[in-house]
Design goal:
Strand order of the largest sheet of chain B: 3-2-1-4-5-6-7
Helix content of chain A: 40-55%
Oligomer: heterodimer
Order of helices and strands of chain B: EHEEHEHEHEE
Radius of gyration of chain A: 18 Å
């Protein structure tokens, strides 16, 4: 099963339309697509199920049982996939298409790509290529990394120090 | 000390929780924008506030009122946030009510400090960016939430 996440705040029709097309090309796979409560998009494929905002427990259930996550470039999705060592493809929102308030998702994927932590797709062809590598032994690299459960030690140490300072005041 | 830790549901919240060992042992109230997110912090005090962003002006006013009530009632020593808009409001309210506030800009802001962060820096006691290239007189760099 492929779980697609689009976040909680804004519609992402372009991704959902691409997934609709993808579901036709990969008709053996089932897709669960989480959309925000602001989306009014329709899909044609029979193997796609649209779900609205998911409470944490439900979200985790879908996330954990998926073979692949395709997500907008939200840090929540990315951090969870990295923490769980889950196969992830990130599809960033673009401000020019009014998919987000600014282009920070494009910047996010830029540095995550440089750190070789994620796979990035910006269109239908990218997704087809990555899914072929992942599911059909296609040629190419599919990144699947894992990170620890906490922030860097230096940041936590800094915050502890600052709280200690505040206590003395 | 009494600490309020606040973040919008989603990536801001995920990042905040990755730092939680920093405030372990203190009296903590967690605040987010979805009631069900209490399940992320079992056994801890949790309240939710209405979500809003710069594209929802009326919502912002309602969220502001809710955050004001919480901080006024709780009288925390410190308020810590990773954003987004509700986090900015918590910084403004904290300054107004004489509470120390800490802003940690989201790791997603790699090219420049977020608009929220820039606003928050006029009200917060300490501000952090998660990218060394972005540090300046108002934003310190001490690491990031990734590793």
């Amino acid at each position: 099963m492929i779980f697609v996440t689009t976040g909680t705040q804004l519609p992402f029709d372009r991704l959902i339309e691409v997934i609709d097309k993808l579901a036709e090309a990969f008709s053996d796979e089932s897709f669960i697509v989480q959309i925000s409560n602001y989306d009014t998009v329709q899909v044609k494929s029979q193997n796609i199920k649209l779900v609205g905002f998911l409470e944490p427990e439900e979200f985790n259930q879908y996330f954990d049982s998926a073979d692949l996550i395709i997500g907008h470039a939200g840090m929540g999705t990315i951090l969870k996939a990295l923490e769980d060592g889950k196969a992830l493809v990130v599809f960033p929102r673009k401000a020019s298409l009014v998919e987000h308030r600014n282009d920070h998702q494009m910047a996010t994927v830029g540095w995550l790509k440089r750190l070789k932590l994620i796979n990035v797709a910006e269109n239908y062809e990218d997704l087809v290529r990555l899914l072929s590598i992942r599911f059909e032994n296609g040629e190419g690299e599919f990144i699947a990394e894992r990170i620890g459960a906490t922030a860097s030690e230096s940041l936590i140490k800094e915050l502890k120090q600052v709280l200690f300072e505040a206590e003395l005041d | 000390m009494k600490i309020i830790v606040i973040a919008s549901a989603g990536g801001h919240w995920t990042q905040l929780l990755r730092m939680k060992s920093a405030w372990a042992g203190h009296e903590v109230l967690y605040v987010s924008t979805k009631a069900s997110f209490s399940t992320f912090v079992p056994g801890e005090r949790f309240v939710s506030v209405r979500d809003s962003s710069r594209w929802d002006k009326i919502g912002l006013m309602i969220t502001f009122k809710e955050i004001f009530k919480i901080i006024f009632r709780e009288k925390p020593d410190i308020v810590i946030t990773t954003g987004a808009a509700p986090g900015v409001m918590a910084m403004v309210v904290s300054k107004f009510l004489g509470r120390k506030a800490i802003w940690i800009d989201s790791i997603a802001n790699v090219e420049q400090i977020s608009m929220s962060g820039k606003i928050a820096s006029y009200f917060a006691w300490k501000c952090y960016t998660q990218w060394p290239e972005l540090k300046n007189e108002r934003f310190k760099y001490a690491g990031n939430v990734l590793k």
